[in-house]
Amino acid sequence: MVDKPEIIETQRFEDFRGWLSVPVDKSVDFRVVQINQGFSKKAGTLRGLHFQEEKHAQAKLVSCLHGSIFNVAVDLRPGDTFGYAYGKILSFENQKQMLIPRGFTHGYLTLEDDTLMQWCVDNDFCAAAAKAVRYDSEFNWQTDPWPMMEYILAEKDKSAKSLQELAQCGLIKS
Question: What's the rounded Cα separation, in Å, for the pair 20 and 96?
C-alpha cells in the first residue's frame, strides 16, 4: 500500500463509438470490500472529513463518475506527516482516481451540480468507529487547499472537532 495518497491516471482507449478504460487492474494493490456512491445535487456540497478508528480504518479508492469534485485526504497517523493534507480535482472528464491509504481522513467538495462520486473501501463500515475532523482545521497543505466558495454542509460535519482539538483531547494521536 502507498504511504500517501496516490493519483491514478486512467488510460482511455477511444474510437468512433466512445471510449473504454480500465480504472483498476492487478498493478493497484487494493482489495475492494465495499463500493459506495454519493450523489450531490448542488455545487459547493462539502462532505467530510470522515475516518474510522484503529482496526476499522479503511483505505479508499475514490473516483468521480459524473461532474467533478475536489477530493481531500489528511494524514492522521502519528509522526512527521500528521496533518499533511492532499487535494486533487477528480472528474468524469479527467478520469483520475485517488488511492488513499489507511490512517487518513477523507472528504470532498462538489464543483458542479449533479455530481456522482464513488469510493471503494478495503474494510467494512463500523458506525461505532466512524469519526469526523472539521474541514477547516489547520492542515499542512501539500497541494492547493479547498477551493473558496460557499459550502453546503451537514450538521455532523459543521460540528466536527478540529484536528487540533481531537489531538489535544487524545481522540487521535499526533
Answer: 14
**Per-residue pLDDT reduced to its tens digit, 145-157:** 999 999 999 999 9
What are 130's three cell numbers? Answer: 466512524
Q: What is the largest CA-CA distance in the chain?
A: 58
Computed on alpha carbons and rounded to an integer, the radius of gyration of the chain in Å comes to 16
Let me know: does 36 contact 119? Beta carbons within 8 Å.
Answer: yes
Note whether 85 and 109 are within 8 A (CB): no
What pLDDT does 87 receive? 98
* Stated pTM of the model: 0.92
- CB atoms < 10 A from the CB of 86, how many? 21
Angle at 97 between CA 93 and CA 100, to 5 degrees: 155
